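Quick question, first post here. What does this chain look like in 3D?
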Amino acid sequence: MDFSAENNLYVNRVWVQCENESCLKWRLLSSEDAVKMDHNEPWFCFMNTDSRYNECCISEEDFPEESQFHQSGFKIVYSQLPLGSLVLVKLQSWPSWPVFFALILLKGNM
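> Answer (accepted):
Ran it through. Tokens below.
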């Protein structure tokens, strides 16, 4: 994956998780699609306007390796809060929501 060519894709997109209990895959939405979401309603893969990723049977999209972020000038920030901590997350134009810190294993060794 040539992340430098795709960094605008990641900068202007929002990750959402399918709420189908047998799926729970993460999908990348455009900021325009994310703004149209009803944040009080569940979101499912079939709601994705990107037909390449709008079914639960389709694999998750690739997430760049940490080194690819660094090569593109992004900085990874690691939390000093312990796993299981509950925090309130807030993004511009989005309502706040609670999040638990959890260990998420991505491709490769961590």
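The two ends are 19 Å apart (CA to CA).
The longest strand covers residues 13-17.
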